[in-house]
Amino acid sequence: MTRPVGPGETADKLAEWDNEGGAQSAFGNALPGGITTRLVREFMVGPYCYTDLQLAIAERDRQNAAPGPGAR
Fold first, then answer.
1. Which of 20, 34, 45, 63 has the most crowded CB, counting CB atoms within 10 A?
2. Residue 45 β-bridge partners
3. Would you give per-residue pLDDT tens digits along the chain (72 residues)?
4. How far apart are CA 46 and CA 35, in angstroms?
5. What is the pLDDT of residue 45?
6. 12 phi and psi, to 5 degrees?
7. CA nearest 59: which of 44, 41, 69?
8. Which residues contact 18 (CB under 8 A, 6 or more apart)?
9. Cα(71)–Cα(68) distance, rounded to whole angstroms?
């Protein structure tokens, strides 16, 4: 993500800042051998965490159907 050129900055100075390296580009686009990565989407419903959306929806429905505190 880039940021806009601020007052007193030149585009060259911004390009230098934007390409300073940092942790995100420590290995370029490749990971060291033997290491893989994957992104996992999680769905939180109250105190519970699901990776399956259908299970999260079912839990939400259970929570919404449960009687509130003090109900008889």
1. 45
2. 48
3. 556 656 666 666 656 656 555 555 566 778 889 999 999 999 999 999 999 999 999 999 999 998 877 666
4. 33
5. 97
6. -65, -45
7. 44
8. 2, 3
9. 6
